[in-house]
Design brief:
Strand order of the largest sheet: 1-2-3
CATH topology of one domain: Arc Repressor Mutant, subunit A
Structural class: mainly alpha
Helix content: 40-55%
CATH architecture of one domain: Orthogonal Bundle
Radius of gyration: 32 Å
Oligomer: single chain
Strand content: 5-15%
Bound molecules: glutamic acid
Number of strands: 12
Number of helices: 19
CATH class of one domain: Mainly Alpha
Shape: elongated
Largest sheet: 3 strands, parallel
Length: 482
């Protein structure tokens, strides 16, 4: 077995090993992120293995969704993905090596026999575990040609301690680990065997995954140690079992807490990848009180000793705040493209880009940007919200008409000049600016919320602005006839 000092010089290889379920779960995304960062921080490599042995769930669509989600988050891998289902022969080969070396044995127990064993254990309130009935029996006792599974011969005395990089030392008595199945009667490998063989063959040095797999580590280690005894070159990996993500109520994160798939955060919540990256990083890993951490800072700072031992609680508000931060930081042309793709009508990218600095000041999601930008491309006659219509009473319409006259002769169509004109008109009417700005907003956007009204005028341009104002204005003195 490789000693600790050997391992320190061997380059770090991590892996993310999702089972396709139809989407990339945010817990999985965080595991992928930690593996990616750990490898990047230590100058190592990180690999992707698709655990697609459950043929029913592992559709191409489910696999594509995982790869697409990882790609969107900016997590790249250092080799093509490994597909576990391609490697069944190799898994079986290792099972046979274990068998030949006496570290595994054939079990001829029939399903009925095992069911009866379990029923007895249940009745006697014993732990439900295979009772090793074939461990010391000879194959010759089985009927000719009887089907068998191959089971691992797990040491029954002593205990195993894992020096987990996140959980610390965890010890389990070997007697508590069952002689589980490596190879089924039809010759197909079990998940437990496949993971170990794949990790070895991919040169994985660090297994970083959810702590729901900590128990599996105690079952997987005996294979590793047996193979190391048989042929050498099977060092124990370093384990890091990361606590799962919980919802705000403290229960394991599930659909009832909101989106659990990365695509839900992208498509429904309108989150930018760098915001989710930062949020998932902070969820369970800390560096002082720092909330905003860029990708390159994360690579520099990340290590497993900063991962908390307790489950992290998902807080959508924090994610939204981070998203607002990254929206303000983001390049305007890039945001314009993202927003344009989500608008329900053709959007002019140049205009959207130009509008972005004023649209993004308060937005916490792409959805808010899409909503905020809608007025730019709205067609006349504008669809009005009830609130906006409510603002346009007769008096307001008359004021708009007066303002329109002044704006028609306005040549300097800048925010400053438009503000000066509007203010002077408000002063003339002895009104606060708001009394003018509100109906202007209603007329120009059809809503009661928008960026600053002078920014709206500039973005729409003189012609469109006046057409919209005039559509709502009624000339002074004629309202009684309308
Ligand atoms: N395929 C397993 C899962 O998606 C992960 C296995 C592992 O990381 O060892 O939960």
């Amino acid at each position: 077995m490789a000693s600790d000092s050997d391992r320190k010089v061997s380059p770090v290889v991590t892996r993310f090993a999702p089972s396709p379920t139809g989407y990339l779960h945010i817990g999985g995304a965080r595991t992928a992120l930690f593996n990616w960062l750990y490898a990047r921080h230590h100058g190592g490599r990180t690999l992707l293995r698709i655990e697609d042995t459950d043929q029913k769930r592992s559709t191409q669509d489910a696999i594509d969704k995982i790869i697409e989600g990882l790609d969107w988050l900016g997590l790249n891998f250092d080799d093509a993905p490994v597909f576990q289902s391609d490697r069944a022969e190799r898994h079986a080969e290792v099972a046979h090596k274990l068998l030949e070396a006496g570290h595994a044995y054939k079990c001829f127990a029939t399903p009925e026999e095992l069911e009866q064993m379990r029923a007895e254990q249940r009745a006697n309130k014993q732990p439900m575990r295979y009772d090793r009935r074939w461990r010391d029996r000879s194959e010759s006792e089985a009927p000719d040609g009887a089907p068998f599974v191959i089971r691992l011969k797990v040491p029954t005395d002593g205990e195993t301690t894992i020096h987990d990089a996140v959980q610390g030392d965890v010890t389990v008595k070997n007697a508590e680990i069952d002689d589980y199945v490596l190879l089924r009667a039809d010759g197909t490998p079990t998940y437990m065997l496949a993971v170990v063989v794949d990790d070895h063959d991919m040169g994985v040095t660090h297994v970083i995954r959810g702590d729901d797999h900590l128990n599996n580590a105690f079952r997987q280690l005996p294979i590793i140690r047996a193979m190391d005894e048989i042929e050498g070159g099977w060092p124990d990996p370093v384990y890091g079992h990361v606590p799962l993500i919980h919802g705000p109520d403290g229960a394991k994160m599930s659909k009832r807490h909101g989106a659990v798939g990365v695509e839900g955060y992208r498509d429904e919540e309108g989150v930018l990848p760098e915001a989710l990256f930062n949020y998932l990083l902070r969820l369970g890993w800390g560096h002082g009180d720092r909330e905003e951490i860029t990708k390159s800072e994360a690579i520099e700072l990340f290590d497993l000793d900063g991962v908390g031992k307790g489950p992290a609680r998902f807080d959508i508000k924090k994610l939204q705040n981070l998203n607002g931060h990254y929206i303000r930081e983001a390049d305007d042309a890039r945001l314009a493209k993202i927003v344009a793709a989500r608008m329900d009508r053709q959007a002019d990218l140049d205009l959207l880009t130009q509008a972005m600095p004023v649209l993004k000041t308060r937005a916490k999601s792409i959805n808010e940007l899409v909503e905020g930008a809608a007025f730019l491309f709205a067609e006349r006659p504008l669809e009005m919200t009830d609130k906006a219509t409510g603002l346009l009473d007769d008096e307001a319409r008359q004021r708009l008409a007066g303002l329109s006259e002044m704006l028609h002769v306005q040549n300097d169509w800048t925010s400053e000049a438009l503000e000066a004109t509007t203010k002077s008109y408000a002063e003339k009417l002895e009104l606060g600016l708001g009394k003018l700005a509100q109906p202007m907003r209603a007329a120009l956007t059809g809503t009661t919320t928008s960026p600053g009204i002078f920014d709206v005028l500039v973005l729409l341009g003189k012609e469109e602005s006046l057409l919209r104002i005039d559509a709502q204005a009624s000339p002074t003195g004629t309202e009684e006839n309308d």
